Each structure stands twice: as structure tokens, then as C-alpha cells.
Fold this protein.
Amino acid sequence: MPGITGIIRKHLRATTDDRRMDAMLKCMLHDGSYASGKHFQARLGVCSGWTAHPGSFSDCMPVWNEARDIVLLFTGEHFGDPGDCARLRAKGHQCTGEDASQLVHLYEEFGMGFLQKLNGWFSGLLLDMRQRKSFLFNDRYGLGRLYYHEAADSFYFSSEAKSLLSVLPSTRQLDAPSLAEFCSCGCVLQNRTLFSGISLLPGGSLWTFSPGEPIQKELYFQRETWECQPILNEREYYLKLKETFRAILPRYFREGEQIGMSLTGGLDGRLILAWADCQPGTLPCYTFGGSYRDCADVQLARKLAKACQQPHQTISVEGAFLGQFPALAEKTVYLSDGAMDVSGAVELYVNRLAKQIAPIRLTGNYGSEILRGNIAFKPRPLSTALYDPEFIRLGEAAAENYASQKRGRTASFIAFKQVPWHHYARLSVEQSQITLRAPYLDNDLVALIYQAPDLALKGTDVALRLIVEGNAALGQIPTDRGLIHRPVPVLTRARQLYQELTVRAEYAYDYGMPQWLARIDQHLKPLRLERLYLGRHKFYHYRVWYRDQLAAYVKEMLIGSTAQSRFYLRGNSLETLLCNHFSGAQNYTLQIHQALTCELIQRQLIETN
């Protein structure tokens, strides 16, 4: 995905560091359309580079002030007050437009206090030649991820770990406790990474570099700022939530931009649609669908778009995806630095197609987490049939670590841990193709959630009420779980029970198929019972794909190769596990995800580099 990278040391080594910067940037050029460049500042000992989507907020690097003694490299977006540029121009700054060029002038006005004004996901490097200081920073959540390696005489950083792996041989080994967390929790915890000697800059960081002095590591934002706010009563909270949502939404619709909306049958996308002030036909909507049938998301999103007089189309995951899966899986792991498992191949596929509709994707992602406190990940026991006993003990330690990290305010766990540790994985794949915008992580909205009374964070009443007040027609279209603003007692409950039944049935015939059901299904395989259940709510079905269409690729990758000798696996158990899945006698979808992903991390990020 687009980002920044650099080397900071007391004395640059011109030829060597230039060559290293070329190698680091090369790892980040995932698309021929990316803009990129380098910047050297020998006085400050900084060698840096950047990549950006063409035409994006950050496609104006490097940004200088008028005196050319301050320069900024920035990646990501800032959703601020539309009048900021006008105010800066009134003060004599040459502010050219609503892009990242304005940020260097905000720094001139407010110093590093300008970071408090930034709203979005970002990271940046600011060089101030007047003070002979360099400042490295990221957003308060840490979604603008920065990997770093700190040595005695140098500091390396990058938006992508592979840049560091390409030039630092000592980091090319997996950290076993982190890998166990990844396999158990689906992500690495506590700002650590899969790679030895590489860490993550904590969210809200401001690190200052001065030649010949130790790094000054500070946080410009403390979550306690939000945690200390007074709790509102239900009426006050609702009114303030409506006011805040209406106020922030225009920030995500800049004039002249091509924006498409990914729409589902749930609450959060339609809430944005209900309050978006878009003229008919100006906001193309799309939904991801599968090959069995039009899933609930497709059926409902089509109705939602029609009610708002917006065009809608379905992006289908069909046979073409399965033919491309090997390349997509490998690219997914590579793009995300191993943070996203191979199941994210489907996200890479659909977002490539979404880019053809619009380069910016507006989404309701994170709405259930922020508005309703949904915890989206938790540890799972590691499979004793697959993993080495010592590795399983590391997985148990991962579960204990997760429990300790989860203590405290749920809102803080979600915003400052779940979002940057867990949700980043899918975001990194999506952002490699498009610019993703999610209003539910707007600073003003997240800050308000800390003032919500407990009842307001439970259930869906608040969201349904907001939808109806924004657009009454959208509130009358049932959600994918049968929810509606004014339920008809018997009919609505019957619809909800039916939808819940189909959700559970699909899960039981896909990821969650219990082993006893797999044995029954094996004997009934000629009937292809999965056709009755799959595709009603999900558009991807890896259990069946691994059993049938993708079995040859899985065998090639994992059987009779170095994969079986990895330190975390249990001898030859991998082959037995795979054969049982291929025959349909058992379900090992999750274990295949993990084994394939770990093998691709090893091959593409460790051994290739």
C-alpha cells in the first residue's frame, strides 16, 4: 500500500544509503500507477522515500514551505475543516488546495501541535532545517502503520516491513511468540511484529531525531483524554450523536473526487447512505457477491441504492477468482507483510475490480465496533493435530496476553488495539488497490462514544433511529438479520429467526462445519448439499474450495515440500490433516489458512529477501 520509508543516522553514506533506499522503495511499488520519489537531507542525516496513489490526498510529495526550510513527507488522508486552506491563505501561506500540501503550513502556525488537529489515518516525516530536527509521527490509532528497526548508529522505518527485510538481513527470521499470537488471535499483539528486531510505532507517536542525540520518544495523544469525559444521558447522547454524524460526513465527500460506496445489507453502510447529501446518480454503489446466488447483502443493497436513486452493481467472485487464487494468495501475504492470511485473496480480487468503478471506496467498516462495541477477534486454541507442543504452549501464552490487553474500557480496546492490530490486516490489502474511507473512525465520532451511556451501546435501536431520521425509506428495508425500525411483532420476529437460521446453517457448512457433520456430508457428497446453504450471506466459501478447486495448489504448497519441516508444525501431521480435508471426512479450513499463510510468509518475506 502507499507509504513512506527512510533511514536516519548521524552521517549518511551517500552511495550505500541511496542504493538501500532504492531497494526499500522497490518493495513498495505494488502497482505500475503508483507515484514515488526520494528525498535526501544530509544535514539531518535523513534518507527517505514515498509512494502514493495518483491523484490521492498525498500525491504531492515532498511538500515544502515557502522558505524551503521545512519539508514534509506524508501518507494517508486528513479530514479537517474545509475552511483551513482559506484561513492559511489569509495568513500569507501559499496553500494550493485540499491536499497534503496544507499540512506543512499548519506546522508553521502551530508547531508539532498541528498533529492534534489531524483527523484520519496517516504517518509522516517532517524535517525542520531551522531547528535541525526530524519528526516521525502517525495517527492516534496507529492505522498509519510504521515498522521500525533501531540499531546503535541508525534508525530504519517504513510503512511496510518488507522494505526493512530487504536491507536488514538480521531481521529475516520469524519471532516464535509473535507467530503463535498470529495463529491463535489472528494478529500480533502489543505493537510487535512477526519479524525479529522489527517493531511498530505506537499510535499517536511523535519521535524526534536530532543529529548526535538520543531519539526523543513521546506520545502527542493520550487515550485518557477521551476516557475522562463525562457520561451523557440517553437523550443528550442521541442528539449529540446525530449532530456529530451530520457534521463529519461531508468531510468524506470532497468536491471533484470520484467516490464509490461499498454497500451491504447491514446497518452501518445504510446509515452513511441515509445522511449522505448526494444528488441522484452521483454515488455509484457496489456489493460483493458470490457464485451460488445473490446473497442477502446483494439483494438488500440493490434496494437501498434504488431507494436513494443511486446506481448499483454486483462485483462477483466466480470462477475467474479461483483460477487466480495462487497468485492472489501470494500477493495478499506479501502486500500485508503477513498480517492478512490467504483468505484475504478475495479482498484483493474484489477491490481491484472496485477500483475500476471509483478510486475511492467509502465504507461502513468499523461501525458495529465503534457504535455498538463489537469485539471482532479473540484467541482460539491451536490445533494439536497440526502444531508442535512447544508452539501450542506459546499459543496458550498468547491467549493470556490477549486477556490482559482486553482489560479496561471496551472503547479503548477497540479503537487503540483491535483496530490497529486486527483490522489493519484487511485494510492493508484494500488500500494497496484503492483509497478506503471509513467515517466511523472520525476523531470527533470516536471521542463522543466515550460519553455514551451503557444502554446506548447495546443493541441496534440507536442506529435504526438515526437511519429513519436521515432517510425514512431506508429504515423500512429489513437488514440482513431481519432488523427494522418499526417491527411487526410476529412477522419481524419470524424473519429474524429465518435469517439467523440461514446464517448458522451457512457457517456450519463452511468454516464452522463440525467434524461429525463433515463425516456425514462426505457420504452425501454426490448430492452437493452445500448448494442449499452456501451463498446466502457470504460470497466466499473456502472449505469447499480447498476440498475441490484449490486442492491441487494446497498439495503443491504444503505436501512434500519444506513446509512440513517448519519448526511450528508437528512432524508429518500436516499431510494427514490435508488428506482428511480433501476427502471431505473432516474440516480443517482454518488450519489450511494458517499453514498456507505461514509458508508464504516464510518463502516470500524471509527466504526471498
User: Anything to note?
Assistant: The mean pLDDT is 94.
